[in-house]
Design a protein that fits this description.
The chain is built from eleven helices and five strands. By secondary structure, it is α+β, with helices and mostly antiparallel strands. It starts with a strand and ends in a 36-residue tail after the last helix. This is Chloride intracellular channel exc-4 isoform X1.
């Protein structure tokens, strides 16, 4: 297992000894080098949640990557067959995504404020990822248009709301859920199908620009090569008839965090 020290934040906290609680998040490592951050959506989502709390100095965050292709013996003995993400709080391991969310919300200082209740937004962003997977599998106009329609709904919501984030001007759990999925759409969609988000989705691009400027996203974001490799390894997306021109394991990691040059959003 490898420690990622980019997300350690310390400060005055709530415990009697004056130290903030240390939370460890175990995430999947890259399937390319087995050390850097992998392309697991849930791992990035909880990384972002906890990073925001670390920035507020309510916790100290330690992030550890584990190579699931060669998990170390202590990982197997401690967590059986449970894959990351795994949250460790005061020696207690929290497994399974729903339990991790509940633990952050109810047991971690400041976590409650991240979990905004908004049924409209919850409905708006659900099923977005399944539409990406369907598009990569089907590669037809129906699946492409379904994904585009969903993105347009998110764009319309952001236009109507006219705030930096989904529910207001501060980030919440929904942003930590949505943005990693948008990144996968950008990177995997472009690589496998030359799919690009239309520039007329101005409010969606503005949203992504705001997210790209935040450490919570950039520190948790996997490399483009890891996102591509993630989909190559999925059994249902073995692109046997497609010539793979690149070998991700030979490339220097890159991160797509740019905005189309024709969109002038810097002052918005």
């Amino acid at each position: 297992m490898a420690d990622d020290d980019t997300a350690h934040t310390n400060g005055n906290g709530h415990e009697e000894n004056g130290l903030v609680p240390e939370i460890e998040l175990i995430i999947k490592a890259s399937t390319i080098d087995g050390r850097r951050k992998g392309a697991c959506l849930f791992c990035q989502e909880y990384f972002m949640d906890l990073y925001l709390l670390a920035e507020l100095k309510t916790i100290s965050l330690k992030v550890t990557t584990v190579d699931m292709q060669k998990p170390p013996p202590d990982f197997r003995s401690n967590f059986d067959a449970n894959p990351p993400p795994i949250l460790i709080d005061n020696g207690m391991a929290v497994l399974e995504n729903e339990k991790i969310e509940r633990h952050i919300m109810k047991n971690i200082p400041g976590g409650y404020n991240l979990f905004v209740q908004d049924k409209e937004v919850a409905t708006l962003i659900e099923n977005l990822y399944s539409k990406l997977k369907l598009m990569l599998l089907k590669k037809d106009d129906v699946s492409i248009n379904s994904l585009l329609s969903h993105l347009r709904k998110i764009n319309s919501h952001l236009e109507k709301k006219n705030t930096r984030f989904l529910t207001g001007d501060t980030m919440c759990c929904f942003d930590c859920e949505l943005m990693p999925r948008l990144q996968h759409i950008r990177v995997a969609g472009k690589y496998f199908m030359d799919f690009q988000m239309p520039t007329d989705l101005r409010y969606l691009w503005r949203y992504m620009l705001h997210m790209y400027q935040l450490d919570a996203f950039t520190q948790s974001c996997p490399a483009d090569q890891d996102i591509v490799n993630h989909y190559k390894q999925q059994q249902n997306l073995m692109l046997q008839n497609v010539k793979m021109k690149k070998h991700e394991e030979l490339e220097t990691p890159t991160f797509t965090t740019s905005i189309p040059v024709e969109l002038d959003l810097q002052d918005e």
